Amino acid sequence: MVGSTVYGFEDQISQIVAQFNTLGYEVLNSHYGSIKVNPHLSNLDNCLKAVGECNLFLGIIRPYCGTGNIGEKNITFEEIKEAIRLKKPYWFLVHRDVVYTRLLLKKMKLKSGDEIIFTDNRLFDKLSIEMYEYVIKNHVPVTLRNGNWAQEFYRLDEMMVYINAQFTDKDFINEVMNQTKSNNGK
C-alpha cells in the first residue's frame, strides 16, 4: 500500500504506483482507485481496512497533509499509525522541507518563550512534523530505536531511487516478510 497525501501530488503518486506495477506489485492506494470502498464506512475506515489488507506499506510524509482530515484525525497519519501498530513491513519517505522545518523550529523561540503558532495554510502543515517524529520514534531513546528509518527526498527521482532500492529485490522483500511473520509469532 502507498499511503500519502494526494492533492497537489497526483502525478507523483501515479508514477510511484506505475513503478510498483512495473516491479510486479499489486498496489493499494486511494488515489489510484485500488482500495475496496464500503459505502457504509467513512473514508478513514476504508483506508484503515486497506492497511489491514496490505502486505507491505510505503508511507510518504509531505509538508502539506491535505484535506484528508476527519475531525481531529488525518487519514494519512492514521494509515501510518495503523501500519506500525499492525507490524506491517513498512518504509517511509519524508520530504526534505519537513526535516528542515522541524530542525528550524527547534532552534526558534519567541522572546516570550511561547511556541511559534502555525496558521492554517497550504504551504506547510505542522502535523507533518508530528508524523515524521512518530515514524522516527522520536519518543524512544536513540539507542533503543529500530524500524525508524525515514528516507529524505526532494524530487520524484530521489523517491524512485529509494523505491527501487527497497522493492526490486524480491528475495529481500520475502526475507523482510518472513522476519515480520516470525517476530509476530505467525
Q: Can you offer a commentary on this structure?
A:
The protein is an alpha/beta fold and 186 residues long. It has one domain: 3-Layer(aba) Sandwich (Rossmann fold), CATH 3.40.50. The protein has seven helices and six strands. A four-stranded parallel sheet has the order 1-2-5-6, sandwiched between helices. Strands 3-4 form a two-stranded antiparallel sheet. A hairpin with a 2-residue loop joins strand 3 (69-70) and strand 4 (73-74). Helix 1 packs parallel to helix 6 and helix 2 runs parallel beside helix 3 (75-85). The two termini are 21 Å apart. The model has no long low-confidence stretch (mean pLDDT 89).
Give a quick summary of the entry.
The chain is an alpha/beta fold and 186 residues long. The protein has helices at 10-22, 43-53, 75-85, 96-107, 127-135, 156-167, 170-183, and strands at 2-4, 57-61, 69-70, 73-74, 90-95, 151-153. The mean pLDDT is 89.
